[in-house]
Amino acid sequence: MSTERLAPLDLAFWHLESAGHPIHLGALAVFAPDPAGPPPAAHALLSLLATRAGAVRKLRTRVRDVLLPVGGAAWTPDTDFDVTRHVHRIRLPGAAPVETEAVALAGGLMERPLERGRPPWEMYLLTAADGGPFAVLVKLHHALADGMRAVAIGSAIFDELADPRGVRARARARIREAAAPAPARPWFNDPGRLVGAARDRIDGLGRAVGVGASVVLASRFDPRALPPSLAAGAGGTRRLGTAVLDAEDVRLARKASGGTTNDVLLAVVAGGLRRWLAGRGEPLPEDGPRALVPVSRRRPGGASGPGNDLSAYLLDLPVAEPDPRTRLARVRAAMDRNKEAGPLRGAGALAVLADQLPPIAHRFGAPLAGGAARMLFDLLVTSVPLPRSELSFGNCPLRSLYPMAPLARGQSLAVALTSYGGRIHVGLVADGEAVPDVDLLARATADELTELAALAAAD
């Protein structure tokens, strides 16, 4: 595999990280034993996980600095790669259901930084008794993948996509080839390419000025009054809360109100926050909190290039609004305005701005940008797509999959959602000190959808 320069946004994520604020995302997948086959042995599952993860070419690369461009870095093959440094087994006590114990353990595993001198990823096989349910936790540095690419990388462990004879596996192979970097060609002795590169740089600077102005205009230089749990500075610990929503309830709410599935889910998050804050006796914010809603810029069905490819929208979650239907209507109207303006407006366009900046700006500016996240948004809410097919690992069917988003510096909550098997799985990554009761927030989120669906059915 040839050396591949980090894309600008990847470089920004790489330099945003600090020891107390790791920038990685992940997922917790829970599997049931194969009902028609022999009980899975833990050592066989661990070997299978290591074999499949080690076969993913991207997972055998690490980041190293380069001389040119100044401040840049590149993905390069790890000549000392050893998959056993990245794939581990943890034995669960078995006193509670495997999913319960895995969720409790996941926060601690996610708060540990990845070793930067090695390929930046880890996977954990979480087992109790041989032959019983088990879980796999996947942990990837954000420089390695955005949400959609993380799904592509993580999916390589599933039977359906890892089988070289499968149709989907062949489709994935074509995507991998399309995403591979083209061989580097010298341009310094090609006047036409040199002129084109200069023109692109000038155009890029113009776009950077426009996007940068949008970011500044969307920034808040006067801190908003937020509930203590959302305003608390992150302490570095992590807890995971999970909820499972009925996709049919989401469909009922969307059919009654119009809009999109994502509109309904954003409104449910807002309602869940309202319920949870009220239960804690905290004041409801009159305005917001403001959510950053990532938007993939990859073309659906098309081959995607290497690196993160994101922008985002801003959304003030109407937590103070008491009526669930009105909350949904306000979310829908705000998201419609966002889509009409496009993803190059607002603080979310910071990701687009990153594409226009030279590497040296990321190396020295990313730590400052990370500290300024609170000026731009209060929490992250993201939806991650999954393959529609039924998935399994070692012939053991996938039962639940909870996505986990990175927690920005100075923030206490990040929400990720994904759809699988007729259900929406919600992963709430929270700062353990600011939000020790994230499980109550997860329950409040599920209760909110139940009420919204009941109202929709009654209309």
Automatic annotation (TrEMBL):
Domain O-acyltransferase WSD1 C-terminal: 307-452
Keyword Mitochondrion: no
Catalysed transformations (reactions): an acyl-CoA + a 1,2-diacyl-sn-glycerol = a triacyl-sn-glycerol + CoA
InterPro entries referenced in this protein's UniProt entry, alphabetically: Acyl_transf_WS/DGAT (IPR014292), O-acyltransferase_WSD1-like (IPR045034), O-acyltransferase_WSD1_C (IPR009721), O-acyltransferase_WSD1_N (IPR004255)
Molecular function terms from GO: diacylglycerol O-acyltransferase activity
Domain O-acyltransferase WSD1-like N-terminal positions: 6-264
Stretches assigned to coiled coil: none
Record pathway: Glycerolipid metabolism; triacylglycerol biosynthesis; Lipid metabolism
E.C. numbers: 2.3.1.20
The protein, known as: Diacylglycerol O-acyltransferase
Organism this protein belongs to: Streptomyces tsukubensis (strain DSM 42081 / NBRC 108919 / NRRL 18488 / 9993)
